[in-house]
Amino acid sequence: MNSKWIISALEITRWITVIIGFQLAYFMGNNDIQRIHILMPWIVISLSGLTGIESLFFGKSASEVTGYVYSAYQRQSGLNNVSVAITAVLVLILGWGTLAEITILCASLIFLFLSSINHFWSFLKEGNKNIKNQLRPLMTLLLIIFILPLIIGALEQIQK
């Protein structure tokens, strides 16, 4: 199987699972705490986990698709992403609660935000005109815009 096809499938899967997560969160959740509980694994496991798997098992192809040079740092970043996804699973299984869910969600979102800056830098300063470098900042910004009110609402509910 062509690994570049797998890279494209993983990219599409990441964003489809995020959309499904939002749909489920608003369909099944009655308040922001419940929505975060439903949404967190869909965002963290799909974005961090699938990105980590991509970096670890399809790193060279992923580098070619994005216009980057493959390196050990990509593998290291992949291991970090997988560790964040595993931590999200532990948070859910061990029932560490809303604050832990928000914490791992924020860690994942901060990484995605910083990564999107890297993609944008590569686009602007390094001439890497790959579509991912152009779309990643916009997609990450939209994700943060949609999730931030839920995080704030859940934190307000916890403080009451």
Order of helices and strands: HHHHHH
Instruction: List segments where confidence is low: pLDDT < 50 over at least 5 consecutive residues.
Output: none
Could you say which structural class the secondary elements and strand pairing correspond to? mainly alpha
Total DSSP helices: 6
Instruction: Please compute the radius of gyration using only Cα atoms.
Output: 16 Å
Mind summarizing the main beta sheet?
none
Q: What is the number of beta strands? A: 0
What percent strand?
A: under 5%
Average pLDDT across residues?
92
The end-to-end distance, rounded to whole angstroms, is 53 Å
Report the principal-axis shape.
Answer: globular
Q: Percent range for helical residues? A: over 70%
Characterise this structure.
The protein has 160 residues and is mostly helical. 87% of the residues lie in helices and 0% in strands. It has six helices and no strands. Helix 1 runs antiparallel to helix 2 and helix 2 runs antiparallel to helix 6. The longest helix is centred in the last third of the chain and has 29 residues. It is globular. The mean pLDDT is 92.
Question: Brief description of this entry?
Answer:
The chain has helices spanning 3-28, 32-57, 59-66, 72-93, 98-125, 131-159.
Features:
single chain; mainly alpha; 6 helices; globular
